[in-house]
Amino acid sequence: MTKVQRKQNTNFLIGNYAKQERASMLSGISSLYITGEKQRPTLFTKKVVNSLLHIFSAREKPTHKDMLYLQAILSVAGNRLAKYGDEVIVNKAFVDEESREAFNNFAEDNPEIRNSFGYGSQIEFYTSYYEILMKAGLGDSLNSRKALKRSLLRLGRITHEIHIPELYENEEFEKGHNELFLKYDYNNGNGKLKLTINSMFTNALTAQFTLIDLSVKKNFIRNERALALYDFIIARVNRGEDQHFNLDRVIKVLEENTDDIDKHTRKKYKKLLEKLNDYVDWNIQTYGTGEKLVFNVDWKINK
Question: How far apart (Å, rounded) are the C-alpha atoms in residues 84 and 6?
Answer without folding.
Answer: 9
